[in-house]
Specification:
Elements (H helix, E strand, L loop, with lengths): L21 H21 L7 H24 L21 H19 L14 H5 L1 H7 L6 H23 L4 H27 L29 H8 L2 H26 L2 H4 L4 H8 L12 H29 L11 H22 L1 H4 L2 H22 L4 E2 L2 E2 H20 L4 H4 L3 H5 L2 H13 L3 E4 L9 H4 L7 H7 L13 H4 L6 E4 L9 H5 L6 H7 L1
Antiparallel strand pairs: 1-2, 3-4
Length: about 525
Protein backbone atom coordinates (compact mmCIF):
# COMPACT_ATOMS: atom_id res chain seq x y z
CA UNK A 1 0.00 0.00 0.00
CA UNK A 2 1.12 3.51 -0.76
CA UNK A 3 0.70 6.03 2.00
CA UNK A 4 0.84 9.71 1.17
CA UNK A 5 1.59 12.12 3.96
CA UNK A 6 1.52 15.90 4.01
CA UNK A 7 4.31 17.72 5.82
CA UNK A 8 2.55 20.74 7.31
CA UNK A 9 5.23 22.52 9.26
CA UNK A 10 4.26 24.93 12.05
CA UNK A 11 7.67 26.65 12.03
CA UNK A 12 7.36 30.44 12.25
CA UNK A 13 10.21 30.92 9.79
CA UNK A 14 8.65 28.60 7.22
CA UNK A 15 10.58 26.02 5.25
CA UNK A 16 14.06 26.60 3.81
CA UNK A 17 13.72 28.38 0.44
CA UNK A 18 13.52 26.17 -2.58
CA UNK A 19 15.84 26.59 -5.53
CA UNK A 20 14.80 29.13 -8.13
CA UNK A 21 12.31 27.95 -10.71
CA UNK A 22 12.95 28.28 -14.43
CA UNK A 23 10.72 31.37 -14.61
CA UNK A 24 12.57 32.99 -11.71
CA UNK A 25 15.95 32.27 -13.31
CA UNK A 26 14.81 33.79 -16.62
CA UNK A 27 13.35 36.80 -14.78
CA UNK A 28 16.63 37.29 -12.92
CA UNK A 29 18.58 37.21 -16.17
CA UNK A 30 16.20 39.75 -17.73
CA UNK A 31 16.50 42.11 -14.78
CA UNK A 32 20.28 41.80 -14.69
CA UNK A 33 20.43 42.63 -18.40
CA UNK A 34 18.59 45.87 -17.67
CA UNK A 35 20.99 46.65 -14.81
CA UNK A 36 23.87 45.79 -17.10
CA UNK A 37 22.88 48.54 -19.54
CA UNK A 38 22.97 51.10 -16.71
CA UNK A 39 26.31 49.76 -15.55
CA UNK A 40 27.79 49.97 -19.05
CA UNK A 41 26.53 53.55 -19.33
CA UNK A 42 28.22 54.34 -16.02
CA UNK A 43 31.52 53.27 -17.57
CA UNK A 44 30.92 55.69 -20.46
CA UNK A 45 29.83 53.17 -23.07
CA UNK A 46 28.26 55.35 -25.77
CA UNK A 47 24.80 54.11 -26.76
CA UNK A 48 23.77 55.38 -30.23
CA UNK A 49 20.07 55.74 -29.36
CA UNK A 50 19.76 56.77 -25.73
CA UNK A 51 15.97 56.80 -25.77
CA UNK A 52 15.81 53.21 -27.01
CA UNK A 53 18.44 51.84 -24.63
CA UNK A 54 17.02 53.64 -21.60
CA UNK A 55 13.58 52.25 -22.42
CA UNK A 56 14.99 48.74 -22.84
CA UNK A 57 16.88 49.03 -19.56
CA UNK A 58 13.96 50.23 -17.43
CA UNK A 59 11.53 47.79 -19.03
CA UNK A 60 13.91 44.87 -18.51
CA UNK A 61 14.39 45.75 -14.84
CA UNK A 62 10.66 46.25 -14.33
CA UNK A 63 9.43 43.15 -16.15
CA UNK A 64 12.18 41.01 -14.64
CA UNK A 65 11.21 41.99 -11.09
CA UNK A 66 7.47 41.68 -11.73
CA UNK A 67 7.92 38.32 -13.47
CA UNK A 68 9.99 36.99 -10.57
CA UNK A 69 7.38 38.21 -8.04
CA UNK A 70 4.51 36.73 -10.04
CA UNK A 71 6.14 33.31 -10.11
CA UNK A 72 6.99 33.52 -6.40
CA UNK A 73 3.52 34.47 -5.10
CA UNK A 74 0.79 34.04 -7.72
CA UNK A 75 0.64 30.27 -7.36
CA UNK A 76 0.41 30.38 -3.57
CA UNK A 77 -2.78 30.68 -1.58
CA UNK A 78 -3.48 34.14 -0.14
CA UNK A 79 -2.37 34.52 3.46
CA UNK A 80 0.68 34.84 5.68
CA UNK A 81 3.95 34.18 3.84
CA UNK A 82 7.16 33.96 5.83
CA UNK A 83 8.95 32.26 2.93
CA UNK A 84 12.02 31.24 4.93
CA UNK A 85 13.39 34.76 5.38
CA UNK A 86 15.79 33.59 8.09
CA UNK A 87 17.23 30.97 5.73
CA UNK A 88 18.04 33.39 2.91
CA UNK A 89 21.45 35.01 2.92
CA UNK A 90 20.20 38.38 1.68
CA UNK A 91 17.42 38.73 4.28
CA UNK A 92 19.26 37.34 7.31
CA UNK A 93 22.44 39.45 7.33
CA UNK A 94 24.32 36.80 5.38
CA UNK A 95 26.99 37.36 2.76
CA UNK A 96 24.53 38.55 0.10
CA UNK A 97 22.91 40.88 2.63
CA UNK A 98 26.22 42.54 3.46
CA UNK A 99 27.12 42.79 -0.22
CA UNK A 100 23.77 44.42 -0.99
CA UNK A 101 24.23 46.85 1.91
CA UNK A 102 27.72 47.82 0.75
CA UNK A 103 26.51 48.24 -2.85
CA UNK A 104 23.61 50.49 -1.81
CA UNK A 105 25.80 52.52 0.53
CA UNK A 106 28.43 52.94 -2.19
CA UNK A 107 25.78 54.10 -4.67
CA UNK A 108 24.50 56.75 -2.25
CA UNK A 109 28.00 58.00 -1.48
CA UNK A 110 28.73 58.43 -5.19
CA UNK A 111 25.31 59.99 -5.82
CA UNK A 112 25.65 62.62 -3.09
CA UNK A 113 29.36 63.39 -3.10
CA UNK A 114 30.86 62.25 -6.42
CA UNK A 115 28.18 62.73 -9.13
CA UNK A 116 30.90 63.26 -11.74
CA UNK A 117 31.50 59.50 -11.62
CA UNK A 118 27.94 59.07 -12.85
CA UNK A 119 28.57 61.49 -15.71
CA UNK A 120 27.39 64.78 -14.21
CA UNK A 121 29.02 67.68 -16.09
CA UNK A 122 28.50 71.22 -14.89
CA UNK A 123 28.28 73.65 -17.80
CA UNK A 124 28.51 70.98 -20.49
CA UNK A 125 26.88 67.89 -21.93
CA UNK A 126 26.32 65.02 -19.53
CA UNK A 127 28.15 61.75 -19.88
CA UNK A 128 27.76 58.23 -18.58
CA UNK A 129 24.54 57.02 -17.02
CA UNK A 130 23.20 60.55 -16.46
CA UNK A 131 23.41 61.24 -20.20
CA UNK A 132 21.38 58.05 -20.76
CA UNK A 133 18.51 59.68 -18.81
CA UNK A 134 18.66 62.97 -20.75
CA UNK A 135 15.86 62.03 -23.21
CA UNK A 136 13.41 61.23 -20.39
CA UNK A 137 14.33 64.38 -18.47
CA UNK A 138 13.90 66.58 -21.54
CA UNK A 139 10.55 64.93 -22.26
CA UNK A 140 9.22 65.74 -18.79
CA UNK A 141 10.86 69.04 -17.81
CA UNK A 142 12.65 70.17 -20.96
CA UNK A 143 15.98 70.17 -19.11
CA UNK A 144 19.00 67.81 -19.22
CA UNK A 145 19.13 65.16 -16.53
CA UNK A 146 20.97 65.55 -13.25
CA UNK A 147 22.03 62.99 -10.69
CA UNK A 148 18.83 63.81 -8.76
CA UNK A 149 16.66 63.09 -11.79
CA UNK A 150 18.39 59.74 -12.27
CA UNK A 151 17.91 58.97 -8.60
CA UNK A 152 14.27 60.07 -8.66
CA UNK A 153 13.55 57.92 -11.69
CA UNK A 154 15.15 54.79 -10.23
CA UNK A 155 13.51 55.50 -6.86
CA UNK A 156 10.08 55.73 -8.48
CA UNK A 157 10.64 52.61 -10.58
CA UNK A 158 11.69 50.70 -7.44
CA UNK A 159 8.53 51.69 -5.54
CA UNK A 160 6.30 50.77 -8.51
CA UNK A 161 7.78 47.37 -9.34
CA UNK A 162 8.31 46.25 -5.75
CA UNK A 163 4.87 47.65 -4.98
CA UNK A 164 3.48 45.10 -7.44
CA UNK A 165 5.39 42.39 -5.58
CA UNK A 166 3.98 43.65 -2.27
CA UNK A 167 0.44 43.59 -3.69
CA UNK A 168 0.77 39.96 -4.69
CA UNK A 169 2.35 38.99 -1.39
CA UNK A 170 -0.33 40.65 0.77
CA UNK A 171 -3.29 40.31 -1.57
CA UNK A 172 -5.32 38.75 1.25
CA UNK A 173 -5.32 42.07 3.15
CA UNK A 174 -7.39 44.98 1.84
CA UNK A 175 -5.63 47.55 4.03
CA UNK A 176 -2.21 46.60 2.69
CA UNK A 177 -3.44 46.81 -0.91
CA UNK A 178 -4.94 50.27 -0.42
CA UNK A 179 -1.94 51.84 1.25
CA UNK A 180 0.43 50.31 -1.32
CA UNK A 181 -1.60 51.81 -4.17
CA UNK A 182 -1.46 55.09 -2.24
CA UNK A 183 2.34 55.27 -1.89
CA UNK A 184 2.76 54.21 -5.52
CA UNK A 185 0.44 57.00 -6.65
CA UNK A 186 1.97 59.74 -4.48
CA UNK A 187 5.52 58.83 -5.51
CA UNK A 188 4.72 58.69 -9.21
CA UNK A 189 2.47 61.74 -9.38
CA UNK A 190 3.38 64.14 -6.55
CA UNK A 191 7.09 63.39 -6.13
CA UNK A 192 8.11 62.65 -9.73
CA UNK A 193 5.82 63.79 -12.54
CA UNK A 194 4.19 66.97 -11.14
CA UNK A 195 7.46 68.69 -10.07
CA UNK A 196 9.00 67.94 -13.47
CA UNK A 197 5.94 69.29 -15.29
CA UNK A 198 6.05 72.40 -13.09
CA UNK A 199 9.60 72.99 -14.29
CA UNK A 200 8.45 72.57 -17.91
CA UNK A 201 5.75 75.24 -17.44
CA UNK A 202 8.30 77.90 -16.49
CA UNK A 203 8.00 80.83 -18.88
CA UNK A 204 4.89 79.37 -20.50
CA UNK A 205 1.89 81.48 -21.51
CA UNK A 206 -0.02 80.04 -18.57
CA UNK A 207 2.42 81.76 -16.20
CA UNK A 208 2.80 84.87 -18.39
CA UNK A 209 6.55 84.50 -18.44
CA UNK A 210 6.79 83.65 -14.73
CA UNK A 211 8.38 80.67 -13.04
CA UNK A 212 7.44 77.91 -10.64
CA UNK A 213 9.66 76.67 -7.82
CA UNK A 214 10.46 72.96 -7.83
CA UNK A 215 8.15 71.58 -5.15
CA UNK A 216 7.45 68.03 -4.04
CA UNK A 217 3.88 68.64 -2.86
CA UNK A 218 3.86 65.71 -0.46
CA UNK A 219 7.04 66.76 1.34
CA UNK A 220 6.39 68.65 4.59
CA UNK A 221 8.75 70.41 7.00
CA UNK A 222 10.92 69.24 8.65
CA UNK A 223 11.39 66.56 5.99
CA UNK A 224 11.87 69.29 3.37
CA UNK A 225 14.35 71.07 5.65
CA UNK A 226 15.23 73.54 2.88
CA UNK A 227 11.72 74.95 2.38
CA UNK A 228 12.20 78.11 4.44
CA UNK A 229 15.70 79.03 3.36
CA UNK A 230 16.16 82.46 1.80
CA UNK A 231 16.51 81.31 -1.80
CA UNK A 232 13.30 79.24 -1.47
CA UNK A 233 11.32 82.14 -0.01
CA UNK A 234 12.53 84.42 -2.79
CA UNK A 235 11.62 81.76 -5.35
CA UNK A 236 8.10 81.47 -3.95
CA UNK A 237 7.50 85.22 -3.84
CA UNK A 238 8.94 85.80 -7.32
CA UNK A 239 6.53 83.24 -8.81
CA UNK A 240 3.45 85.37 -8.28
CA UNK A 241 0.19 84.08 -6.87
CA UNK A 242 1.06 80.42 -7.50
CA UNK A 243 4.34 80.70 -5.63
CA UNK A 244 2.70 82.55 -2.75
CA UNK A 245 0.00 79.87 -2.58
CA UNK A 246 2.68 77.16 -2.37
CA UNK A 247 4.39 79.05 0.45
CA UNK A 248 1.11 79.34 2.38
CA UNK A 249 0.44 75.65 1.70
CA UNK A 250 3.84 74.78 3.17
CA UNK A 251 3.06 76.75 6.35
CA UNK A 252 -0.46 75.35 6.68
CA UNK A 253 0.91 71.84 6.23
CA UNK A 254 2.92 72.26 9.43
CA UNK A 255 0.44 73.96 11.73
CA UNK A 256 -2.97 72.87 10.41
CA UNK A 257 -3.04 69.96 7.95
CA UNK A 258 -0.66 67.50 9.62
CA UNK A 259 -2.04 67.91 13.19
CA UNK A 260 -5.64 67.39 11.98
CA UNK A 261 -4.81 64.32 9.90
CA UNK A 262 -2.63 62.88 12.67
CA UNK A 263 -5.43 63.39 15.19
CA UNK A 264 -7.88 61.48 13.00
CA UNK A 265 -5.65 58.75 11.56
CA UNK A 266 -2.33 58.74 13.41
CA UNK A 267 1.04 59.28 11.73
CA UNK A 268 0.24 56.42 9.34
CA UNK A 269 -1.59 58.85 7.01
CA UNK A 270 1.85 60.19 6.08
CA UNK A 271 4.49 57.60 7.03
CA UNK A 272 2.69 54.63 5.45
CA UNK A 273 0.38 56.21 2.86
CA UNK A 274 2.20 59.25 1.41
CA UNK A 275 5.89 59.49 2.31
CA UNK A 276 8.39 58.40 -0.33
CA UNK A 277 10.91 57.19 2.27
CA UNK A 278 8.20 55.05 3.83
CA UNK A 279 7.04 53.95 0.40
CA UNK A 280 10.48 52.60 -0.49
CA UNK A 281 10.81 50.93 2.92
CA UNK A 282 7.45 49.19 2.54
CA UNK A 283 8.00 47.97 -1.01
CA UNK A 284 11.67 47.48 -1.86
CA UNK A 285 12.53 47.10 1.83
CA UNK A 286 9.81 44.57 2.68
CA UNK A 287 12.26 41.65 2.61
CA UNK A 288 14.29 43.24 5.42
CA UNK A 289 11.58 44.33 7.88
CA UNK A 290 12.34 41.43 10.28
CA UNK A 291 15.89 42.74 10.84
CA UNK A 292 14.78 45.65 13.06
CA UNK A 293 16.19 45.46 16.58
CA UNK A 294 13.50 44.71 19.18
CA UNK A 295 15.76 44.83 22.24
CA UNK A 296 15.18 47.13 25.20
CA UNK A 297 18.54 48.81 24.61
CA UNK A 298 17.51 49.67 21.04
CA UNK A 299 14.31 51.24 22.36
CA UNK A 300 16.27 53.35 24.87
CA UNK A 301 18.64 54.53 22.15
CA UNK A 302 15.68 55.29 19.89
CA UNK A 303 14.03 57.51 22.50
CA UNK A 304 17.16 59.54 23.10
CA UNK A 305 17.96 59.84 19.40
CA UNK A 306 14.41 60.82 18.40
CA UNK A 307 14.24 63.59 21.01
CA UNK A 308 17.69 64.79 19.96
CA UNK A 309 16.63 64.86 16.29
CA UNK A 310 13.61 67.03 17.11
CA UNK A 311 15.76 69.44 19.12
CA UNK A 312 18.39 69.52 16.36
CA UNK A 313 15.89 70.14 13.55
CA UNK A 314 14.05 72.85 15.50
CA UNK A 315 17.26 74.69 16.29
CA UNK A 316 18.72 74.33 12.80
CA UNK A 317 15.53 75.53 11.09
CA UNK A 318 15.33 78.47 13.49
CA UNK A 319 18.99 79.28 12.84
CA UNK A 320 18.57 79.11 9.06
CA UNK A 321 15.55 81.45 9.07
CA UNK A 322 17.20 83.69 11.67
CA UNK A 323 20.31 84.10 9.52
CA UNK A 324 18.26 85.62 6.67
CA UNK A 325 16.37 88.16 8.77
CA UNK A 326 17.40 91.74 9.48
CA UNK A 327 17.42 93.92 12.59
CA UNK A 328 16.07 97.24 11.29
CA UNK A 329 12.41 97.55 12.36
CA UNK A 330 11.89 100.29 9.76
CA UNK A 331 12.66 97.86 6.93
CA UNK A 332 11.38 94.54 8.25
CA UNK A 333 8.21 93.71 10.13
CA UNK A 334 9.78 90.36 11.09
CA UNK A 335 13.17 91.03 12.62
CA UNK A 336 15.64 88.63 14.21
CA UNK A 337 14.47 89.49 17.73
CA UNK A 338 10.77 89.26 16.86
CA UNK A 339 11.30 85.89 15.24
CA UNK A 340 13.15 84.46 18.25
CA UNK A 341 10.48 85.77 20.62
CA UNK A 342 7.74 84.22 18.46
CA UNK A 343 9.48 80.82 18.38
CA UNK A 344 10.04 80.95 22.15
CA UNK A 345 6.41 81.81 22.88
CA UNK A 346 5.10 79.07 20.55
CA UNK A 347 7.37 76.40 22.04
CA UNK A 348 6.51 77.51 25.58
CA UNK A 349 2.78 77.26 24.91
CA UNK A 350 3.17 73.78 23.43
CA UNK A 351 5.44 72.60 26.25
CA UNK A 352 3.15 74.06 28.92
CA UNK A 353 0.05 72.40 27.40
CA UNK A 354 1.82 69.04 27.24
CA UNK A 355 3.11 69.22 30.80
CA UNK A 356 -0.25 70.28 32.23
CA UNK A 357 -2.70 68.12 30.29
CA UNK A 358 -0.73 65.27 28.67
CA UNK A 359 2.10 64.42 31.02
CA UNK A 360 0.49 61.11 32.02
CA UNK A 361 0.47 59.93 28.41
CA UNK A 362 4.16 60.77 27.95
CA UNK A 363 5.28 59.11 31.19
CA UNK A 364 9.10 58.97 31.17
CA UNK A 365 9.24 60.75 27.81
CA UNK A 366 8.10 63.86 29.66
CA UNK A 367 11.59 64.06 31.16
CA UNK A 368 13.20 63.90 27.75
CA UNK A 369 10.76 66.53 26.52
CA UNK A 370 11.62 68.86 29.39
CA UNK A 371 15.35 68.49 28.75
CA UNK A 372 14.84 69.16 25.04
CA UNK A 373 12.70 72.24 25.75
CA UNK A 374 15.27 73.85 28.04
CA UNK A 375 18.10 73.07 25.60
CA UNK A 376 16.16 74.85 22.84
CA UNK A 377 15.33 77.88 24.98
CA UNK A 378 18.91 78.30 26.19
CA UNK A 379 20.18 78.00 22.61
CA UNK A 380 17.66 80.58 21.37
CA UNK A 381 18.92 83.00 24.02
CA UNK A 382 22.42 82.30 22.74
CA UNK A 383 21.28 83.07 19.20
CA UNK A 384 20.25 86.53 20.34
CA UNK A 385 23.36 87.46 22.31
CA UNK A 386 26.16 85.55 20.58
CA UNK A 387 25.31 85.89 16.87
CA UNK A 388 26.49 88.58 14.52
CA UNK A 389 25.97 89.63 10.92
CA UNK A 390 26.28 86.62 8.64
CA UNK A 391 26.89 84.14 11.43
CA UNK A 392 25.03 82.15 14.08
CA UNK A 393 27.15 81.60 17.18
CA UNK A 394 30.66 81.00 15.86
CA UNK A 395 29.48 79.48 12.57
CA UNK A 396 28.93 81.22 9.29
CA UNK A 397 25.31 81.03 8.14
CA UNK A 398 26.23 79.35 4.85
CA UNK A 399 28.34 76.73 6.65
CA UNK A 400 25.48 76.05 9.03
CA UNK A 401 23.00 75.53 6.20
CA UNK A 402 25.34 73.20 4.31
CA UNK A 403 26.03 71.18 7.46
CA UNK A 404 22.31 70.84 8.12
CA UNK A 405 21.67 69.71 4.55
CA UNK A 406 24.59 67.29 4.69
CA UNK A 407 23.47 65.57 7.90
CA UNK A 408 19.71 65.38 7.36
CA UNK A 409 19.47 65.22 3.58
CA UNK A 410 22.50 63.07 2.78
CA UNK A 411 23.93 61.02 5.62
CA UNK A 412 20.80 60.06 7.59
CA UNK A 413 18.11 59.77 4.91
CA UNK A 414 20.31 58.43 2.13
CA UNK A 415 23.51 56.66 3.08
CA UNK A 416 22.27 55.26 6.42
CA UNK A 417 18.53 55.26 5.82
CA UNK A 418 18.47 53.22 2.63
CA UNK A 419 21.98 51.79 2.36
CA UNK A 420 21.57 49.93 5.65
CA UNK A 421 18.30 48.16 4.72
CA UNK A 422 19.91 44.68 4.57
CA UNK A 423 21.69 45.19 7.92
CA UNK A 424 19.39 47.12 10.28
CA UNK A 425 15.99 46.72 8.62
CA UNK A 426 13.91 48.83 6.29
CA UNK A 427 12.87 51.61 8.66
CA UNK A 428 16.15 52.53 10.32
CA UNK A 429 15.85 56.12 8.98
CA UNK A 430 12.20 56.44 9.99
CA UNK A 431 12.92 55.02 13.43
CA UNK A 432 16.10 56.85 14.41
CA UNK A 433 16.65 59.78 12.07
CA UNK A 434 13.51 61.17 10.42
CA UNK A 435 12.43 64.46 12.06
CA UNK A 436 9.01 64.29 10.38
CA UNK A 437 8.32 60.86 11.86
CA UNK A 438 9.48 62.08 15.26
CA UNK A 439 7.17 65.12 15.33
CA UNK A 440 4.19 63.18 14.00
CA UNK A 441 4.98 60.50 16.58
CA UNK A 442 4.67 63.01 19.41
CA UNK A 443 1.36 64.17 18.03
CA UNK A 444 0.18 60.57 17.73
CA UNK A 445 1.21 59.81 21.30
CA UNK A 446 -0.47 62.91 22.73
CA UNK A 447 -3.81 63.38 21.03
CA UNK A 448 -4.38 60.99 18.12
CA UNK A 449 -7.40 58.69 17.97
CA UNK A 450 -5.34 56.03 16.22
CA UNK A 451 -4.33 52.87 18.07
CA UNK A 452 -3.90 49.16 17.49
CA UNK A 453 -6.38 47.28 19.64
CA UNK A 454 -5.62 43.77 20.85
CA UNK A 455 -7.65 40.77 21.95
CA UNK A 456 -5.27 39.08 24.36
CA UNK A 457 -7.55 36.11 24.91
CA UNK A 458 -6.98 35.00 21.30
CA UNK A 459 -3.18 35.49 21.25
CA UNK A 460 -1.18 32.26 20.86
CA UNK A 461 2.20 34.04 21.32
CA UNK A 462 3.47 32.98 17.91
CA UNK A 463 5.57 36.15 17.65
CA UNK A 464 4.78 36.92 14.01
CA UNK A 465 3.68 40.45 14.91
CA UNK A 466 6.90 41.35 16.74
CA UNK A 467 9.13 39.64 14.18
CA UNK A 468 7.76 41.64 11.25
CA UNK A 469 7.37 45.00 13.01
CA UNK A 470 9.83 47.16 11.10
CA UNK A 471 9.84 49.80 13.87
CA UNK A 472 11.18 47.37 16.46
CA UNK A 473 8.04 47.31 18.63
CA UNK A 474 7.49 44.14 20.68
CA UNK A 475 3.85 43.88 19.60
CA UNK A 476 3.45 40.44 21.14
CA UNK A 477 4.09 41.81 24.63
CA UNK A 478 1.09 44.14 24.23
CA UNK A 479 -1.09 41.44 22.67
CA UNK A 480 -0.39 38.97 25.46
CA UNK A 481 -1.64 41.52 28.00
CA UNK A 482 -4.56 42.68 25.88
CA UNK A 483 -3.24 46.27 25.88
CA UNK A 484 -3.91 48.78 23.13
CA UNK A 485 -0.75 49.80 21.31
CA UNK A 486 -0.23 53.56 21.33
CA UNK A 487 3.42 54.16 20.48
CA UNK A 488 5.00 57.26 19.00
CA UNK A 489 7.17 55.14 16.72
CA UNK A 490 4.32 53.08 15.22
CA UNK A 491 3.81 54.01 11.55
CA UNK A 492 0.55 52.08 11.22
CA UNK A 493 1.80 49.87 8.40
CA UNK A 494 -0.56 47.14 9.61
CA UNK A 495 1.80 44.25 8.88
CA UNK A 496 1.47 43.01 12.47
CA UNK A 497 -2.25 42.61 11.88
CA UNK A 498 -1.74 41.14 8.39
CA UNK A 499 0.56 38.35 9.63
CA UNK A 500 -1.44 37.51 12.78
CA UNK A 501 -3.00 34.04 12.34
CA UNK A 502 -5.71 34.69 14.95
CA UNK A 503 -6.96 38.18 14.11
CA UNK A 504 -5.78 39.53 17.46
CA UNK A 505 -4.70 42.96 16.20
CA UNK A 506 -6.87 45.64 14.64
CA UNK A 507 -6.04 49.19 13.49
CA UNK A 508 -8.69 51.64 14.69
CA UNK A 509 -9.49 55.35 14.75
CA UNK A 510 -12.86 55.28 16.54
CA UNK A 511 -13.67 56.67 19.99
CA UNK A 512 -12.98 54.70 23.16
CA UNK A 513 -16.35 55.47 24.69
CA UNK A 514 -18.85 52.63 24.73
CA UNK A 515 -16.23 49.89 24.49
CA UNK A 516 -15.70 46.83 26.65
CA UNK A 517 -12.36 46.91 28.46
CA UNK A 518 -10.41 44.01 26.95
CA UNK A 519 -8.18 43.82 30.03
CA UNK A 520 -11.16 42.97 32.20
CA UNK A 521 -12.15 40.11 29.91
CA UNK A 522 -8.56 38.82 29.82
CA UNK A 523 -8.51 38.77 33.64
CA UNK A 524 -11.89 36.95 33.69
CA UNK A 525 -13.54 39.83 35.56
CA UNK A 526 -17.22 40.60 35.30
CA UNK A 527 -18.07 43.32 32.79
CA UNK A 528 -21.16 45.47 33.44
CA UNK A 529 -22.72 45.63 29.99
CA UNK A 530 -25.65 47.73 31.23
CA UNK A 531 -23.27 50.54 32.11
CA UNK A 532 -22.30 50.69 28.44
CA UNK A 533 -25.95 50.65 27.36
CA UNK A 534 -26.77 53.52 29.72
CA UNK A 535 -23.98 55.60 28.24
CA UNK A 536 -25.61 55.59 24.81
Amino acid sequence: MNYQTNNKSMALTGQPPKSLSLNQKLATVLGMMGMGILLLATFNVAFPNKTLWLTVSLLAISFGTIWFSWDAYSKKLPGIKNDGVWFKSISSRGLWGWMAGLALTGFYIILYFYPEYLGQVNGGENKGVIALFDPLSKLLSGNPASQWFVYGTLYTVAILIFGVKFLWKYRHNRYERLRTFSVMFFQLAFAFIIPEVMARLNGDKILEGGSLPYYDLKSVWPLNYYNFEGYRIKGFLSSGDIGFALLIFGILSIFVITPILTYRYGKRWYCSWVCGCGGLAETAGDAFRQLSDKSLNAWKIERWVVHSVVVFVTLMTTAVVYSYLGTDTNKYWLTKSTFLIGVTVLLTLVFGWVMIFKRAQLQKDAQYGAIGYFVIIITLIGFHFLSGEGQVFLFKSETLRKTYSFLIGSIFSGVIGTGFYPIFGSRVWCRFGCPMAAILGFQQRLFSRFRITTNGGQCISCGNCSTYCEMGIDVRAYAQKGENIVRASCVGCGICSAVCPRGVLKLENGPLEGRIDSNQILLSNDVDLMSLVNQK
